Amino acid sequence: MFRPRPFALERFFAKHEFSARRLLCSSDCESMSVRELLALEPGSEESLLSLRLGYTETRGAPALREALASRYEGPGADGIFVHAGAEEALLNLFAATLSDGDRVVVATPCYQSLSELPRALGATTLPWHWRIEGGRWILDPDELAPLARGARMIVLNLPHNPTGGTVSPSDFAAIVAVARKEGCILLVDEVYRGLELRETPRLPAVCEAYERGVSLGVFSKNAGLAGLRIGWLASRDRELLDAVAAFKDYNSICSSGPSEVLALVAARNYDILGNRARALCERNLDAFEGFAARHPDFVEWTPPAGGSIAFPRLAAAALGRFGDAGALAERLVSETGILLLPGALYEADAARFRLGFGRADFAEGVAELEEWLGAGSGKGPAVAP
């Protein structure tokens, strides 16, 4: 029976996201109003207002698919499949392609859907671990070949949530080579693609690099348009996309027409939106790194290579003071309204927490965190390590 376990991260956000005053852990970037988005393209307001509110095409409006296809080399509009957000795209893809007993390699820690949905569908999930080496987060491609032997699918997220890590172009090519040798699907969650930081090279989309590659995209992260609820799959594997279409008939059937009109404006102006988000992320990253340098007794810092997230660790002194990141997060939001995301929600080191630096008020939140740490409330009571 398909019965996924409760989504720990989303249950945490359900409790705190809309009551916390400062979100220092959001994975999406700063958003904008409908008016601001429409202002990017003359005539788009009339297109939205004159839209007939009927059903839309299951695979997405042709103009939207064409606009998204222009971001890739190879798949074309027929290789783009629009969904109601990235989450629906993942569910439909996994349900359409996985069977009981399939082997699925999943780079971990990860957003829970990437591992839990395959597990709930009866697949055996095999973790491939991110680790820190040389001051950065890495995945070792030499570890993949034995894990992927006989696998139905390999699942990655690049740039990676929650660490902000990525792989080198040569390591990416090695990963593709392993997938091709096994003949398996290679799914890459690319929702942070375009948010490469500080001259980190942008990897090819997996749908460009591999004939059985599937790229997952969404407007929530680097476009800052989470409320559109528009995501997509991109692939050259038409048979796979046909299978996804057959399963989609049992859930959303099609996406929201108004959302697709707005998404078309976003797709045509993706570079503007992405450059805006990336500039904000880099400014906010500078702000946090200054904080981390001033407070080595609070945080151990490994910089992200991309995305709007990072995965720092509480220093030993902070663990002695607060207990772990979960205890700190609950206390911090209760006393200040500032929200951090405990790493334990990723089934990872409980001393780690996710940082999200894509919002406009991030620097103000860091300043408030620093003030709290310097005040009496941030210094005690002591907790036994």
Describe this structure in words.
By secondary structure, the protein is α/β, with parallel strands linked by helices. It has two domains: 8-31 and 272-375, Aspartate Aminotransferase, domain 1, CATH 3.90.1150.10; 47-269, 3-Layer(aba) Sandwich (Aspartate Aminotransferase, domain 2). The protein has 15 helices and 16 strands. It has helices at residues 8-16, 34-38, 44-49, 62-69, 85-97, 113-120, 144-148, 169-182, 206-209, 238-248, 257-268, 270-294, 316-322, 325-336, 362-374; strands at residues 22-23, 80-83, 103-108, 124-129, 131-133, 136-138, 153-157, 185-189, 213-218, 231-235, 299-300, 309-310, 313-314, 338-339, 341-342, 353-356. The strands form five sheets. A seven-stranded mixed β-sheet has the order 2-10-9-8-7-3-4, sandwiched between helices. The chain has a three-stranded antiparallel β-sheet with strand order 12-16-15, with helices on one face. A two-stranded parallel sheet has the order 1-14. Helix 6 (113-120) links the parallel strand 3 and strand 4. The longest helix has 25 residues, at 270-294. The model is unreliable at 380-385 (pLDDT under 50).
